[in-house]
Specification:
- The complex is a heterotetramer of chains A (about 210), B (about 300), C (about 625) and D (about 500).
- Chain A is mostly helical and about 210 residues long.
- Chain A has one domain.
- In chain A, about 80% of the residues lie in helices and about 0% in strands.
- Chain A is globular.
- Chain B is mainly α.
- In chain B, helix 5 crosses helix 6, helix 7 runs antiparallel to helix 9 and helix 9 crosses helix 10.
- Chain B is globular.
- Chain C folds into three domains: about 240 residues, no CATH class; about 270 residues, no CATH class; about 55 residues, no CATH class.
- Helix content of chain C is about 75%, strand content about 5%.
- Chain C contains 24 helices and six strands.
- In chain C, helix 5 crosses helix 6 and helix 5 runs antiparallel to helix 7.
- Chain C is globular.
- The chains are: A mainly alpha (about 210), B mainly alpha (about 300), C mainly alpha (about 625), D alpha+beta (about 500).
- The interface between B and C is large, with 80 and 76 residues.
Chain lengths: ~210, ~300, ~625, ~500
């Protein structure tokens, strides 16, 4: 079952590489959050109730609901519809992400550490690299934030990959960090939104209201 | 034996069901289920016009394309019922037959000296090249999964058990479904309905064909569609069900397949042409995940 | 003047008869034979015998073609013709000799003769400056290859004290294999055309006359593969990493070369890149075979070696066909630019039909022989995925993807060559006035096609006849081959019956349409009556959508003054493109630029005055004297 | 240049006859003065003595002014003149028509090619032998579409210069539907015949063209119609706008293969045009508008029916419009496809919705209002991205605006007077002699300009028709540059230009 969720998680990465509508990207992030919730729930059932509920809150509530909702709202408010022409074509992105998945897998396979579980490790590395790639290849700040969110999802999986050894505190700190940055960004974009949007895009977005 | 009979039978209705679904979805009654067959029969009787620019390739290609699909069908088993033709590694033969059909159709299109058909040929060649890895990765994965290399044995020994294997089957069905859509030039890669020369892939290749050849090409398309239907329905055939049960399952699966195609085509727009390569290559990416899943299933890989 | 070439053909035929007579028994019973001529030892083992057959068929087909291909060159002087004829025979002889040598030194000598004679052949149209430049570049690059071989010889002799091939076995047993294999691979790979050593190929093939390019591409580059095979023959132990390395080089070579072929507008250059692609396929197969041997999987190894050997023969055959057909087209139209051709199928149908068959084969499509060897490669990779651990499973998975990508890309390349260059309407006057060539110019291709058809229908016999060679690589191959034979028989029957099915359906179609009316009319042009040949895809535009996907790997520079917003009514524009071989640009160009720069600097000394030269001589002598006195030398 | 406004009747004698040199500098000076100025008509006709009399009408959108200047070319004099197009590209089409019809050689015209007649007609060449712009080098291929298209569209030939899937340049060759409308207009005929002819200029702009023609005639007759008639005409025009826009939205959906949108919107077009059937007996509004009257008035029963039709239409239209403009696969096709920049639109003098979607505010209803539009309660939308999305979305906005406006007009119609027109009792009168009138109406496609000139006996000597397509075809050509050739159908449909309106 966990395997299925991990594979589905990797599938979302493939689709992340080819979306050109930011809203779809956010939806994919939400799906990832839910998947991570599933994975975490299956893995950590034996952990004490407090920890468990904390992790669940982190995945399902924050990753799955709050952050996507917040991002959607930011998009809608600022009439951000589409990724501006990315620096690399979507086809190249797709090739890259496919390669990233393969390379992560080979890497995971070669490392072959006692505590490392290949599935998690592959998925987390893929998410990490894909996040980095998205940050490098795309131009908009909001997409960068989404790249960071991918990265964070990767780190979360990595913490699962090394068993329960990574202290939850680290993860939580990263999440808080990101949450702050998302909030900051939303604030920022809200403020400067009008100045870099064309009039016509704002009119186009009447349809979103 | 059963598979080829099923293919021929369902190919008669397949396009009909798709079109019917589409027309119902848009609030019309639509053409009868057998309209496509009637069209083909009418075309087969008609006279033909050939281009003065063209050579014998133009005359030969529809026949080659037809034969390749028919022969490819002969390799398809039906559950544990063996196919007519079978030898080791015939998955390769299966794919290369389709490639041969594509090759001949591309040359046929280029033979007419028409820019439209050149356009179609160019797109067909590119998409064909991109779709093939997905098929081979799936075929290779199944070979790994079952330890066999002929379609016959693969489907005979493919037993789905665990949750992961269902996931793999779901992915595989998805990829095959999309391959079928690409190979048969349906949405979102191609749109068989709007007859605009500049936007089509498959339809534009056959712009200059008429009469018997055109009828044969249309027949080829529906048979190829039904062939993928049988291929997909093979995933849904449990080994313990008796033969008649399997046939019923297969017919239901194919009807659902046709309805799904019709519904998919009703509620979305087609891709921008430049988005197609990336869309098609996604299939390979998904197929790669199928391969990994298979590695897990065969315990070559321990998570 | 053709007399000299006809004579040469006769000599070659005699040589072929003799060598085949020696080789066939070796192939049949697997017993090596040898004979000495003075200090030279000619040895024939199964691999050599196999190569002898391959070389002889290829060269003879080329020479027969050359007799009529050379007809338009009657203006050449007797001396030039004689040199050409002698070089041809020498090339033939030296290639045969290369396969028969059993030590590195004599192999190097023969190798050098082979390179020199092929250099002279490339130089045939030496009155063209471009040809001279290409020939010179070929000459230099071949010697870089020879240098690596020399290096390998030194390594071998330095470590084992012997130049013989048996010493290689000794070396491999004691030292890491790559130390010897790397220089050998570089040397032989230069000839074969592995990336990034392929750069001479796409230039030399188009520059050489067509009968020579057929021989060079079909036969001579296989000598590079032979060298690598010969080296591997002495390997043992776990060489799986080496296998993966060869395989990777093969993957990169195949993919890169076929992408280059797609964007080329010069028909012969397209074919040259396709040769490199096939070398890539051979590399992949060799890699898989080495891998299979190393992990003691006889199925993979046997499939791999069978694929390598069969594909060598297959490629020789269809490359000869394709180059000679391209030669016929060149003779008929005097251009190789696909953008200037078109409409040839209606003007020279027999030549073009042969080309289409050749293309079908080289794309690996059924029912021709190319499919048989590609089938084996696929089989090997599927077996590799199936019967090995996760790591090699993934390696073979890459092979599988590469094979089908190469297959698909080859279809693009050759549908482009045929569709743009030969079908449709002629684009220029020369193409419009092209006429069919004589039967004698088509004969060698038809013979080759005949052999190809036989090979496609009875692949099991072909494999049986080279089983001795396969056995020399993989000792347990007989068991595998025995189980493979039914499949190959089925494949042959399948190939034959596919053709049969097409014939049957065609007959049915004929019967069904016997009463139907058939008319001819212009191609549908939307009712526009002034259609012209510009309304067809060109070679450049046919490749464009592929190029856009792979633009970082293959760069096509378009030259056109762009249309800007204000250019509502544009003035006349010209659009041209040129393609850059990225690898050639980054590996070959910088050193050449460096040498050029150095030479320009040296030109300072080149004053043209006799007195300065005497001064140089004087300085030189003094310098020598000083150095000697100082005891440096 | 003489300043006047839409539907003003001006005496020909009030327009000074300039020498060509003065004319050229005057027109250029006027164009330079204000960015909102563009040429609405520039035409010529032969005087009885064989001289060529040419008029150029400029419009200033910011001040609602029109300007006119004229010059004479003696039949015996030189026909080689410097062109206005060399300075302002938008004049190209008018000068090409002058060149084609009257043999005026514009020496520095950048694009002197036939508009309606076969190239080199004198030598018996076919209409297909057109000197297309071509890109040399043998590596670009051409695609020729038309005159017979896939699907039933009107005839025109499109020649693409392509590198693979990308279009470098598109050239459009029309003229297959040349019927000689302008000649038939002055051909001795009754007013009714002329009105029917005006109805047939472009089938999808029946109301627009007829209104423009009828307005011109009414002005020349120095008569007015009642408020109710004016309001009814405005309702008809807005209904036409809604019907065609909805039909185009449906067609756009069809071209991107979005079946649901295409089917639903296609079905919605029918009630709109069917209302015309109820109203006047013809689904396209033929036979509704006549000089001085409307042949059938919008009775209270019809008004109720119209309200009902609109309500029903809106109820079904809103959801599908929302779905369509939110469906990613549809938006992906529309956005950033076929962009025409504001600069380009300005250069070629785009008008109507083609201009409004590229950031130019050009709407005759606001800039040169006539009749009910003087009340200024119709809303004009301007979008800036210039892509297919803008043109599609503009259609939606205009449908909304028109629905609102029709409701306003219906309210006003209930109280409007039906007998304050001066033409009610005597619909056909003599036309004012030696006069000229420019009648501009904002059809759904853009400004329709009918220019009528009478002689000293009050007989029509020239009636010039300018359909917005005259300018906007070039916008289509430009929108394809650098785009994929497979996007041509949606670019084409996003403009939905008139073939017969151009070919006349």
């Amino acid at each position: 079952m966990v395997t299925i969720l991990i594979i589905l998680f990797v599938v979302t990465l493939v689709y992340v590489s080819m979306v050109d509508r930011l809203a779809t990207f956010v939806t994919l992030l939400g799906i990832q959050g839910v998947l991570l919730f599933g994975i975490a729930y299956m893995e950590l059932r034996d952990v004490d109730a407090l920890n468990l509920s904390f992790i669940l809150a982190e995945t399902l509530v924050f990753k799955g609901i709050v952050i996507p909702w917040f991002l959607q709202r930011t998009l809608r408010r600022n009439k951000l519809v589409k990724e501006a022409e990315p620096t690399v074509t979507h086809f190249t992105s797709l090739l890259f992400v496919t390669a990233i998945i393969l390379v992560s897998f080979l890497l995971a396979y070669t490392v072959h550490e006692e505590h490392l579980r290949i599935g998690y490790f592959t998925a987390s590395l893929s998410a990490l690299f894909t996040g980095l790639f998205i940050i490098m290849a795309r131009t908009k700040i909001i997409t960068h934030v989404m790249g960071y969110l991918l990265l964070e999802n990767g780190i979360f999986l990595l913490s699962l990959a090394v068993g329960n050894e990574m202290p939850l505190a680290v993860n939580t700190a990263i999440l808080l960090d990101l949450l702050t940055s998302v909030l900051l960004l939303a604030f920022l974009v809200d403020k400067v939104g009008e100045s870099f949007q064309t009039v016509d895009a704002s009119e186009l977005n009447e349809l979103n209201d | 034996m059963i598979s080829i009979a099923l293919i021929l039978l369902s190919s008669v209705f397949f396009i009909g069901i798709v079109n019917r679904t589409k027309s119902i979805a848009s609030g019309r009654i639509g053409p009868g289920l057998l309209q496509h067959l009637k069209d083909i029969v009418r075309l087969l009787k008609k006279g033909s016009v050939t281009s003065t620019s063209s050579s014998f390739i133009f005359q030969l290609a529809p026949t080659i394309s037809f034969v390749t699909v028919i022969v490819a069908c002969l390799f398809l088993p039906f559950g544990d019922q063996p196919s007519i033709l079978s030898f080791q590694y015939d998955v390769v033969v299966f794919a290369y037959l389709l490639a041969l059909g594509r090759f001949s159709m591309i040359l046929m299109a280029m033979d007419t000296a028409s820019p439209f058909e050149g356009m179609g040929a160019n797109r067909e060649a590119l998409y064909g090249m991109l779709v093939e890895p997905a098929f081979f990765v799936l075929a290779g994965s199944f070979a790994v999964l079952t330890g066999h290399t002929s379609l016959n044995e693969i489907f005979r020994d493919m037993h789905l058990g665990s949750g992961v294997s269902y996931l793999m089957a779901a992915f595989a069905v998805y990829v095959f479904l999309q391959i079928a859509m690409v190979e048969n030039s349906r949405l979102p890669v191609d749109d068989p309905k709007t007859h605009l020369e500049l936007t089509m892939v498959h339809e534009v290749i056959i712009l200059d064909n008429s009469g018997f050849d055109l009828g044969m090409i249309l027949a080829t398309t529906s048979i190829r569609f039904a062939m993928f239907g049988v291929l997909i329905s093979n995933f849904a055939l449990p080994p313990m069900v008796p033969l008649w049960g399997k046939i019923i399952i297969a017919i239901v699966v194919m009807a659902v397949f046709a309805v799904v195609v019709g519904l998919l085509e009703s509620f979305r727009a087609r891709n921008r042409m430049k988005r197609n390569p990336q869309f098609i290559f996604t299939l390979t990416s998904i197929a790669i995940l199928v391969f990994f899943t298979v590695l897990i299933l065969t315990n070559k890989l321990v998570l | 003047m053709r007399i000299s070439f006809i004579l040469a053909t006769m000599i070659s035929a005699a040589m072929a008869a003799l060598s085949i007579a020696w080789s066939v028994p070796v192939l049949v019973n697997g017993q090596a034979a040898s004979f000495a001529y003075g200090p030279l030892v000619f040895a024939i083992d199964p691999l050599t015998a196999f190569m002898v057959v391959l070389i002889n068929i290829g060269v003879l087909l080329g020479m027969v073609y050359g007799i009529s291909y050379l007809r338009p060159y009657a203006s050449k002087s007797f001396m030039e013709a004689l040199v050409h004829a002698v070089a041809m025979v020498t090339l033939h002889g030296s290639m045969l000799a290369v396969t028969m040598m059993r030590d590195m030194v004599s192999l190097l000598i023969m190798w050098e003769i082979m390179s020199m004679s092929s250099f002279l052949l490339v130089l045939f149209e030496g009155e063209k400056a471009r040809t001279r430049r290409v020939a010179l570049s070929y000459f230099i690059q071949m010697h870089i290859g020879a240098f690596f071989l020399l290096l390998a010889t030194m390594v071998l002799a330095g470590q084992t004290g012997s130049y013989t091939f048996e010493a290689m076995g000794l070396f491999y047993a004691q030292k890491p294999a790559w130390m010897l294999f790397l220089p050998l691979f570089l040397g032989f790979g230069m000839k074969a055309g592995f990336l990034p050593l392929h750069t001479w190929l796409p230039h030399a093939h188009p520059a050489a006359p067509s009968h020579v390019s057929g021989v060079m591409s079909g036969v001579m580059i296989k000598l590079g593969i032979y060298g690598i095979l010969r080296t591997i023959l002495f390997m043992h132990g776990d060489q799986s990493m080496l296998g993966v390395a060869i395989l990777s080089v093969g993957i990169i070579t195949g993919l890169y070369a076929i992408l280059q072929a797609i964007v080329r507008n010069d028909l012969k250059r397209l074919l040259a890149y396709s040769s490199v692609e096939n070398i890539g396929l051979l590399g992949i197969s060799i890699g898989m075979a080495v891998l299979g041997t190393s992990i003691h999987n006889d199925v993979i190894a046997t499939l791999g070696w069978t694929a390598v050997l069969l594909h060598m023969v297959h490629h020789m055959l269809f490359k000869v066909v394709l180059f000679q057909s391209a030669g016929n087209i060149y003779v008929a139209t005097h251009t190789r630019n696909l953008n200037e051709l078109g409409g040839l199928m209606r003007r020279m149908p027999k030549t073009i039909t042969v080309f289409v068959l050749g293309a079908l084969a080289i794309c690996g499509l059924p029912p021709l022989n190319g499919f048989v060897s590609e089938f084996l490669m696929y089989a090997a990779s599927i077996e590799g995925m199936k019967n090995s651990g996760a790591y090699f499973s993934i390696v073979n998975f890459f092979v599988l993807i590469t094979l089908c990508l190469i297959g698909g890309l080859a279809i693009i390349a050759f549908t482009k060559a045929i569709g743009v260059g030969m079908l449709g309407e002629p684009r220029t006057e020369p193409a419009r006035h092209a006429t069919e060539r004589s039967w004698f110019m088509r004969l060698p291709q038809q013979i080759a096609i005949g052999i190809m058809i036989v090979m496609a229908i009875v692949p099991q016999l072909m494999i049986a006849s080279i089983s001795a060679v396969i056995r020399s690589f993989s000792p347990n191959s007989d068991i595998v081959l025995a189980s493979l034979m039914p499949t190959m028989t089925s494949l042959g029957i399948f190939n034959a019956s596919l053709v049969g099915a097409v014939v049957v359906v065609l007959a049915l179609r004929k019967i069904a349409t016997r009463n139907a009316q058939r008319r001819e009319g212009p191609t549908w042009g939307c009712g526009f009556t002034e259609a012209d040949a510009r309304l067809q895809y060109t070679s450049t535009t046919y490749a464009d959508s592929t190029v856009q996907l792979i633009s970082p790997v293959v760069r096509v520079h378009a030259h056109m003054h762009a249309l800007n917003d204000a250019d509502v009514f544009p003035h006349a524009r010209t659009y041209t493109t040129d393609v850059v071989d990225v690898i050639e640009e980054s590996t070959i160009q910088p050193p050449i630029a460096g040498i050029n720069y150095a030479l320009r600097r040296l030109a300072v000394f080149h004053t043209g005055s006799m007195r300065t030269y005497i001064l140089y001589a004087f300085v030189f002598i003094i310098a020598i004297a000083v150095v000697t006195i100082m005891g440096v030398i | 240049m003489l300043s006047f406004s839409n539907l003003d009747v001006i005496s020909l004698d009030a327009i000074p006859v300039l020498s060509y040199g003065t004319f050229l500098t005057t027109v250029l000076d006027h164009m330079k003065a204000n960015d909102a100025r563009h040429c609405v008509n520039y035409m010529g006709y032969r005087l009885p003595n064989g001289d060529l009399e040419c008029f150029c009408v400029l419009a200033d959108d910011s001040t609602s002014q029109l300007f006119v200047a004229r010059y004479h070319l003696a039949a015996s004099g030189t026909m080689a003149l410097p062109s206005l197009s060399a300075h302002y590209r938008a004049f190209h089409i008018f000068e090409r028509v002058l060149w084609e019809n009257h043999g005026v050689q514009f020496t520095d015209h950048p694009w002197l090619k036939p508009v309606r007649y076969p190239h080199d007609a004198a030598h018996g060449a076919t209409i297909d032998s057109y000197p297309f712009f071509r890109i040399e080098g043998g590596e670009v291929h051409e695609v020729g579409v038309g005159p017979i298209h896939a699907g039933v569209i009107k005839p025109g030939h499109f020649r693409f210069q392509c590198t693979g899937e990308d279009v470098v340049h598109l050239e459009i060759k029309l003229g297959y539907q040349h019927r000689g409308i302008e000649r038939l207009m002055v051909h001795p005929s009754t007013m009714l015949q002329r009105t029917v002819l005006a109805e047939s200029i472009a089938g999808d702009t029946t109301i627009g063209h007829t209104w423009a023609f009828v307005n011109a005639m009414q002005a020349l007759m120095r008569g007015t119609v009642s408020d109710a008639v004016e309001i009814e005409r405005a309702i008809a025009l807005e209904l036409e706008r809604i019907a065609i826009h909805i039909g185009d939205l449906s067609a756009l959906n069809l071209d991107v293969a979005y079946q649901l949108g295409s089917a639903v919107l296609g079905a919605l077009r029918t009630p709109m045009i069917n209302f015309f059937q109820w109203w006047c007996g013809n689904r396209f509004g033929k036979g509704l508008l006549r000089v001085g009257q409307n042949r059938s008035s919008l009775t209270p029963a019809l008004q109720d029916q119209l309200v009902e039709t609109l309500d029903d239409m809106e109820r079904r239209y809103r959801p599908i419009a929302d779905t369509m403009f939110e469906l990613p696969s549809v938006l992906a096709r529309f956005e950033r496809t076929g962009i025409v920049t504001t600069e380009q639109a300005h250069i070629i003098g785009a008008v109507g919705m083609a201009a409004r979607s590229s950031g130019l505010r050009r709407d005759v209803r606001r800039s040169h209002p006539h009749g009910v539009y003087r009340a200024e309660d119709v809303q004009t939308h301007v979008l800036h991205s210039g892509d297919v999305m803008a043109r599609t979305y503009l259609r939606k906005l205009e449908i909304d605006a028109s629905i609102t406006y029709i409701r306003i007009l219906l309210d006003r119609l209930r109280t409007a007077s039906r007998d304050n027109g001066t033409l009610e009792d005597r619909p056909v009168r003599e036309l004012a002699p030696r006069s000229m009138v420019v009648s501009m109406v904002e059809g759904w496609r853009g400004e329709l300009v009918h220019t009528s000139i009478t002689d000293e006996h009050g007989a029509l000597v020239h009636h010039s028709v300018k359909d917005p397509s005259m300018h906007n075809w070039f916008a289509l050509a430009l929108s394809l540059r650098g785009n994929e050739i497979s996007d041509f159908p949606i670019c084409n449909k996003s403009y939905d230009l008139s073939y017969c309106g151009h070919d006349l």
